[in-house]
């Protein structure tokens, strides 16, 4: 496929940064602003990646995933941010309440559904909402910085509007537990999550043995990566599991969550990827969408807490790939953006280039399994758990 062909869009609005848990919270909205600013200065947003405005989701749309009681609790907490409702996860350190929380969260849901709509019925081949990807929210409670699960609502919208099979791939360092939970018994949705092992990271789920229930056994796939996994190991795991399963599943559309908290500089996780490795993962997902579903790809942001040096560069690369024109890793960061970052860091240095100076490579699974490798044992656990259900051989 010609990756320059086919329209793409980014769903964005300045109001999306209103999803703000406060100045001391790690999920700083400035990360999104800096990513959009960098993408703009690099010429990523324009004719090939058209900017589409975000529209808030109404309560009925949110209720396709979330319970009415929970939506009411979010509204009540928005009206009185001093009150907590710990029974539904509101007012915790992870999910402090704030004014207009329901409105800000509804806008993210609306933006993510609009991205899905643009691909499914709007004539776009690819779409992205970098503010989306709030994959931990459960139907009846908030979790892990996530109030409403925009990804699950968007996938539900796709199913309700004619999609027969949706593949969801989550590359955030944290397990995509909320999306898995919503579709754990739905054979129409394949959820794949590559994440740091629950032995060392929130939310404590995502083992290879979590494969779905009922008719959906085999439709949940989890790769629990050892702490310290870097570009080569991550890419080895991805290529050993994801493409083969997605090919057999034959989805109509690929939905992905690109949390970039897998980076070596992220303060909340223990993976060791570079911006270059993350860029390689985005390219792999684009190629997979091209191969299995005619290029139809809906991408979302997610986690990422190295807010000035990592998130903007990673997501600018992601937006460029969605738009069909890659940014070469050696590209210098624009001087104006660099000055803005330096100011935010009180004179600290800003990244000079769109690279960490790495050239990602990996050893293909077919070249041999190493039983002494924790990574290889985890990969094999996943392959053993789900490959036979697709008629695939777990061993090379």
TrEMBL record:
This protein's pathway: Ketone degradation; acetoin degradation
Short name of one Pfam family: Hist_deacetyl
CDD domains: HDAC_AcuC_like
InterPro entries for the chain: AcuC, HDACs, His_deacetylse_dom, His_deacetylse_dom_sf, Ureohydrolase_dom_sf
SUPFAM superfamilies: Arginase/deacetylase
Keyword Lyase: no
Residue span(s) of domain Histone deacetylase: 25-320
Similarity-based family: Belongs to the histone deacetylase family.
Protein name in the entry: Acetoin utilization protein AcuC
Organism per entry: Mumia zhuanghuii
Lineage per the UniProt record: Bacteria, Bacillati, Actinomycetota, Actinomycetes, Propionibacteriales
